[in-house]
Amino acid sequence: MSIRLFLLIACCFFAFDKPKLVKTKVATGITVSLPKDWRPMDNMDFTERYPSVRAPLAAYTNQERSVDFSVNISATQWPDANLDVAKQFFKSSVVNMFDRVDMIGEGTKEVKGRKYIYFEFTSRVNGNRAQEGLRDAVLKYSYIQYLIEPRRTLVFSFNCPQRAQEEWRETAKAMMNSIKID
User: Fold this and answer.
1) In angstroms, rounded to a whole number, what is the distance separating the alpha carbons of residues 99 and 140?
2) Which residues, in sequence order, are CB contacts of 55 under 8 Å at separation 6+?
3) Which residues are within 8 A (CB) of 80 and not within 5 positions of it... i.e. 6 or more apart?
4) What gap in Å lies between CA 28 and CA 144, rounded to an integer?
5) Which end of the chain is more exposed for a tag (fewer CB within 10 A), N or C?
6) Phi/psi of residue 86, each to 5°?
7) Average pLDDT of 55-80?
8) Range 46-64 average pLDDT
9) What does the DSSP assignment read for the chain?
10) What are the angstrom distances between the C-alpha of 166 and each of 29, 136, 141?
11) Is there a contact between 123 and 144 (Cβ–Cβ < 8 Å)?
């Protein structure tokens, strides 16, 4: 009996083992520590899951294609570094993208000498009962960071199913805190 209990506890412990992060050059002048076994998304993969007019600078996913990280340039440029106004604008955009948003954390923080706006939240997009394959609500955990620079705004985004939030939350924060811009 005690051996079975030990094996059950050991399996649970190793099942939630945090992935090893490896410093990765995701775009010119941008490095981020990503899980070692992640792979770059191909164009079809990204387009299927994140339809957008702009292709991302970089997009990565886990082997199961359920957890993603991307770097993009926002269409919104800020003439000054007024982070408070930018934060309100980006929060409004986040809230309007989903049917429901529950903020876990938000604010500004410094990472490697640069100031970022961040939002950590869970979201819900309601299903459409009339459309086959889209009937169930989609629940996600997301961590988004914005870096406002003079001629561009970089957007760093981590997403996973809400059911995997506790498994990935610490890793998402570590990835966001590893961002280095040259």
Assistant:
1) 12
2) 43, 46
3) none
4) 20
5) N
6) -60, -40
7) 89
8) 84
9) -HHHHHHHHHHHHHHTPPPPEEEEEEETTEEEEEETT-EEPPHHHHHHHS--SSPPSEEEE-TTS-SEEEEEE-S---SS--HHHHHHHHHHHHHHHSSEEEEEEEEEEEETTEEEEEEEEEEEE---TTSTT--S-EEEEEEEEEEEETTEEEEEEEEEEGGGHHHHHHHHHHHHHT-EE-
10) 31, 22, 9
11) no
Q: Please provide the size of the chain in residues.
A: 182
pTM for the model stands at: 0.85
Give the whole-angstrom CA distance, residue 65 versus residue 136. Answer: 19
Count Cβ atoms below 10 Å from residue 64 Cβ, excluding itself: 7
For residue 95, with 0-12 CB atoms within 10 Å meaning exposed, 13-18 middle and 19 or more buried, which class applies?
A: middle
CA 10 – CA 30 distance, rounded (Å): 38
Q: Domains of the chain, with CATH numbers?
A: 18-181 (3.40.1000.10)
| Residue type at position 62 | N
| Higher-confidence position of 99 and 150 | 99
pLDDT band at 67 (very low <50, low <70, confident <90, very high): very high
